[in-house]
């Protein structure tokens, strides 16, 4: 999937340079016209989700839970069999992005030249345009100094035929630390958000959100394993963003559930959850659509440097995040015993506070 | 919810306006901004990934620092015991991160302990109040005295080493004539060096990779080098190799006549007779005196100029050098003479530095990233704006005004904080545009719902705001926590993303709570609507 998107971006890239300005000016005019028309109230009202939607989402938990469980198992299996394509940030080694001074880059010639250096396995890959090549050299034995020596050799061997656009050299210890920090950060974020939700809601909500959270991360890691995008610091950034926005969505639904719990003391839980999901559905869809628009722009025009970053976010925020809040985070509250003891609650107090499991 | 006092409305508008205005300096060329008053000079800093440049993470060798200190303690112990005429057997040894000495006579042990305790200084000099000392002297039993470095003392030493190293690194980097390099301490034992615009850091790394410990020492002429190599080395001398190829051995006395610390200046120049590149230097007063005395006493004998334990040259002293000036020749090229002069001027590093992380970005790639980031930002924003107009019509116009001010405020706050803008940072702003309208969507959907519930226009708008704002706060705080964690763990470009994401959340919440409400409130007061066109 990433490959297809990258190819699309390539095409967009070539055309972009010349057409850019016309597109932008055209869109600007469109906005101006639309603004005037909208302000005058001539446009028809658009309802993305019909007002009287009453879809039975919670019934799907008998399907969605097993599906999610199965997908999670697949993702975890992938993680252990395929593994992640650790980027230089976490693996150490040397990376060079070079651009041929004239014409296209001759990868085969470059390969023979670099293989002769005896630096172990060297990966060469076309990156961006036909004149750009990404060179990866695995970490050299012999600590930090050895990595520096390898870079020196590479620079020497490449000579004047190419411009070196970018280099990254990471020694083994720094790479190890970055990986440890990244993982620690992920845990910290989950725990921090959990604590916040625990304060704001009940522990069942926090637990439900946490399960949804881990589910998101597991599936996204599965995606990274399948697509073999580089897993580096920006991937951690993408994971944390996915976490934040998936929760954003979950919190909006939870907020509504809490409100409904206070208002309708006798409504059965599945129905109450359904009402909550349905009444926030329009917002969920519109918001995800706008985020998708933003991410799409980044994916198509943002350049190859942030490609995997946006691809991962697209998958996590748009596909997994939405599904999770509707089909996992909300229905799971039934199993966590939310709203079971509402009838006993005094009218004035918040009923949810009384629910103990 | 829809009522604002005049002062509150004014306050909101002023706040938004001032924050937006903070972004203004970014639209003027840097040279022009430099002439403005200092408070107006705050602007966005482009990250190295957008600007091009080098990022080096250097590590100070802590084991070297420890070994140096232990060697120093060993010498002190030896000298102290000799001065006090206390006999010891087996010499003074460095073992297991400590210095050990066995006192020959049991009876002397207490006296030795007392003498050696004098070596221990309170930590932090005379002002030290922690009660901790830089050396722990203990009786290990059986006449053995053990001197070790406490943890706090080692940390203190590392801290000083880093501070000193940063100064030296700063001087060396500045000698390269680069623009606005950033040099800061990172963690316990690392130094971060960022040099914008420097595409190939090879020379910088060469300059930083040398400790540049310079010494003037006498050559030991009592033993020819080949015999010394065979093992007949006098105890007060050592065998050093030449700096330039082919490696030639020299027998050099351990005693240092004058050290590099006594140099006040060094310049690359050309020898007047041979025309080859040399480095001329000047000593300070005490250095000049020491050098003058040593050269007077040793006329006719060779002395060695030693840099990082390698002999640069070993000229014969033809006459006493009393002027405190001299020159070093030693097969230099113009470049290497220049580099040596820089190193001597900047001073010696207290410990060797290793490059543990290096990232460079060429200026072309940076410019390319800026262009792509800008394009993505425009396209993303336009798509979102059009979508909002089509979906919410008049209220879409309100939302778009709020989002535009929101983005302007993001740039304002980033400038105010002198934050670094990176490519992922631009992605963060684009993402914020997508997310920022979410607050409007939440409010509008809630208003629609309240209208369906049978409320009249004004009451529905009021209730919509009231109910949606709590949700907006809750849902944004979770994302903010993620951004904060990311800021804490990330470096470079990733940190840039965390910054824009976090600031984007703050401005989003601000606009939702104030500006959007204010705009709608004005509209309600102006039109007194019977129905809501939403």
Explain briefly what this protein structure is:
The complex is a heterodimer of chains A (357) and B (534). By secondary structure, chain A is of the alpha+beta class.
Distance between the termini of chain B: 18 Å
Return the average pLDDT of chain B rounded to an integer: 87
Q: What is the global morphology of chain A?
A: globular
Strand order, biggest sheet of chain B?
A: 9-11-10-15-14
Quick one: biggest sheet of chain B?
5 strands, mixed, barrel
CATH classification class of the largest domain in chain A: Mainly Alpha
From the 3D structure, determine the CATH topology of the largest domain in chain A: Multidrug efflux transporter AcrB transmembrane fold
Within the largest sheet of chain A, what's the order of strands? Answer: 3-4-2-5
Domain SecDF P1 head subdomain (chain B): 239-351
Subunit structure (chain B): Forms a complex with SecF. Part of the essential Sec protein translocation apparatus which comprises SecA, SecYEG and auxiliary proteins SecDF-YajC and YidC.
Subcellular location (chain B): Cell membrane
Organism (chain B): Bradyrhizobium vignae
Describe this structure in words.
- The complex is a heterodimer of chains A (357) and B (534).
- By secondary structure, chain A is α+β, with helices and mostly antiparallel strands.
- Chain A contains eleven helices and six strands.
- Chain A folds into three domains: 43 residues; 191 residues, Multidrug efflux transporter AcrB transmembrane fold; 78 residues, Alpha-Beta Plaits, CATH 3.30.70.
- In chain A, strand 3 and strand 4 form a beta hairpin.
- In chain A, helix 8 packs antiparallel against helix 9 and helix 9 packs antiparallel against helix 10.
- Chain A starts with a helix and ends in a 22-residue tail after the last helix.
- The C terminus of chain A is likely disordered.
- With 534 residues, chain B is of the alpha+beta class.
- Chain B has three domains: 211 residues, Multidrug efflux transporter AcrB transmembrane domain (Multidrug efflux transporter AcrB transmembrane fold, Up-down Bundle), CATH 1.20.1640.10; 87 residues, Hypothetical Protein, Haloacid Dehalogenase-like Hydrolase, Chain: A, domain 2 (2-Layer Sandwich), CATH 3.30.1240; 199 residues, 2-Layer Sandwich (Gyrase A, domain 2).
- Chain B has 15 helices and 18 strands.
- In chain B, helix 14 packs antiparallel against helix 15.
- The mean pLDDT of chain B is 87.
- Classes of the chains: A alpha+beta (357), B alpha+beta (534).
- At the A-B interface, helix 1, helix 5, strand 5, helix 6 and helix 8 of A face strand 17, helix 11, helix 12, helix 13 and helix 14 of B.
């Amino acid at each position: 999937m990433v490959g297809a998107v990258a190819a699309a971006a390539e095409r967009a890239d070539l055309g972009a340079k010349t057409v850019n300005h016309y597109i932008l000016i055209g869109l600007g005019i469109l906005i101006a016209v639309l603004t005037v028309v909208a302000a005058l109230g001539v446009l028809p009202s658009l309802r993305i989700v019909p007002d009287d939607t009453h879809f039975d989402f919670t019934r799907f938990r008998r399907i969605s839970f097993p599906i999610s469980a199965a997908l999670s198992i697949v993702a975890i299996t992938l993680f252990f069999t395929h593994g992640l394509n650790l980027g230089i940030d976490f693996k150490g080694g040397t990376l060079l992005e070079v651009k041929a001074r004239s014409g296209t880059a001759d990868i085969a010639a470059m390969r023979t030249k670099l293989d002769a250096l005896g630096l172990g396995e060297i990966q060469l890959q076309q990156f961006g345009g036909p004149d750009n090549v990404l060179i990866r050299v695995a970490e050299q034995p012999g600590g930090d100094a050895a990595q520096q020596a390898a870079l020196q050799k590479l620079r020497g061997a490449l000579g004047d035929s190419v411009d070196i656009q970018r280099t990254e050299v990471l020694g083994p210890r720094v790479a190890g630390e970055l990986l440890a920090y990244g993982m620690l950060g992920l845990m910290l974020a989950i725990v921090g958000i959990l604590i916040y939700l625990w304060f704001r809601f009940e522990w069942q909500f926090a637990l439900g959100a946490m399960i949804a959270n881990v589910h998101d991360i597991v599936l996204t890691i599965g995606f990274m394993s399948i697509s073999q995008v580089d897993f580096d610091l920006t991937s951690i950034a993408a994971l944390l963003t996915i976490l934040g926005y998936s929760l954003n969505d979950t919190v909006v639904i939870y907020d509504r559930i809490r409100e409904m719990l206070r208002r309708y003391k006798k409504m059965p839980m599945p129905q109450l959850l359904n009402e909550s999901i349905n009444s926030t559905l329009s917002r969920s869809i519109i918001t995800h659509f706008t985020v998708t628009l933003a991410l799409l722009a980044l994916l198509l025009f943002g350049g190859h440097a942030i490609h995997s970053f946006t691809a991962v976010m697209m998958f996590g925020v748009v596909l997994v995040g939405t599904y999770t809040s509707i089909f996992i985070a909300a229905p799971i509250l039934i199993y966590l015993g939310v709203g079971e003891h509402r009838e006993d609650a005094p009218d004035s107090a918040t009923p949810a506070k009384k629910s103990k499991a | 919810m829809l009522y604002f006092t005049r002062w509150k409305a004014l306050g909101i508008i002023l706040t938004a306006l001032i924050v937006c205005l903070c972004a203004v300096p970014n639209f003027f060329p840097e040279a022009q901004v430099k002439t403005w008053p200092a408070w107006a000079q705050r602007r966005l800093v482009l990250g190295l990934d957008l600007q091009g440049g080098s990022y080096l993470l250097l590590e100070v060798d802590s084991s070297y620092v420890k070994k140096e200190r232990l060697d120093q303690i060993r010498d002190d112990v030896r000298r102290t015991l000799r001065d006090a005429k206390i006999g010891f057997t087996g010499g003074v040894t460095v073992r297991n991160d400590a210095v050990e000495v066995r006192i020959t006579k049991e009876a002397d042990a207490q006296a030795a302990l007392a003498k050696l305790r004098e070596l221990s200084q309170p930590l932090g000099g005379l002002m030290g109040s922690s009660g901790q000392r830089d050396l722990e002297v203990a009786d290990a039993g059986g006449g053995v005295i053990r001197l070790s470095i406490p943890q706090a003392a080692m940390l203190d030493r590392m801290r000083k080493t880093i501070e000193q190293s940063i100064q030296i690194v700063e001087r060396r980097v500045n000698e390269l004539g680069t623009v606005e390099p950033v040099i800061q301490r990172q963690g316990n034992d690392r130094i971060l060096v960022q040099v914008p615009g420097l595409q190939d850091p090879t020379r910088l790394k060469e300059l930083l990779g040398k400790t540049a410990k310079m010494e003037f020492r006498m050559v030991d002429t009592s033993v020819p080098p080949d015999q010394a190599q065979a093992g007949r080395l006098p105890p007060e001398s050592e065998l050093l190799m030449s700096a330039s190829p082919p490696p030639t051995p020299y027998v050099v006395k351990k005693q240092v006549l004058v050290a590099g610390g006594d140099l006040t200046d060094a310049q690359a120049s050309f020898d007047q007779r041979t025309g080859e590149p040399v480095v001329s230097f000047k000593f300070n007063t005490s250095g000049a005196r020491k050098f003058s005395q040593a050269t007077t006493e040793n006329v006719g004998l060779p002395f060695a100029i030693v840099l990082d334990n390698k002999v640069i040259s070993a000229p014969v002293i033809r006459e006493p050098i009393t002027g405190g000036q001299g020159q070093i020749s030693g097969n230099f090229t113009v470049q290497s003479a220049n580099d040596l002069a820089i190193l001597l001027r900047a001073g010696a590093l207290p410990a060797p530095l290793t490059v543990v992380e290096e990232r460079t970005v060429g200026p072309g790639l940076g410019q390319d990233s800026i262009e792509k980031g800008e394009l993505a930002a425009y396209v993303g924003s336009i798509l979102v704006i059009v979508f909002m107009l089509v979906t919410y019509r008049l209220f879409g116009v309100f939302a778009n005004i709020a989002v535009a001010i929101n983005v302007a405020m993001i740039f304002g706050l980033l400038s105010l904080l002198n934050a670094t803008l990176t490519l992922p940072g631009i992605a963060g702003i684009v993402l914020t545009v997508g997310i920022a309208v979410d607050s409007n969507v939440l409010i509008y959907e809630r208003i629609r719902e309240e209208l369906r519930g049978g409320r009249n226009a004004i009451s529905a708008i009021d209730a919509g705001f009231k109910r949606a704002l709590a949700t907006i706060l809750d849902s944004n705080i979770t994302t903010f926590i993620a951004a904060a964690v990311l800021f804490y763990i990330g470096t470079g470009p990733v940190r840039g993303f965390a910054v824009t994401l976090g600031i984007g959340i703050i401005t989003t919440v601000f606009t939702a709570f104030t500006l959007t409400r204010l705009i709608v409130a004005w509209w309600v007061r102006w039109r007194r609507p019977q129905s809501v066109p939403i």
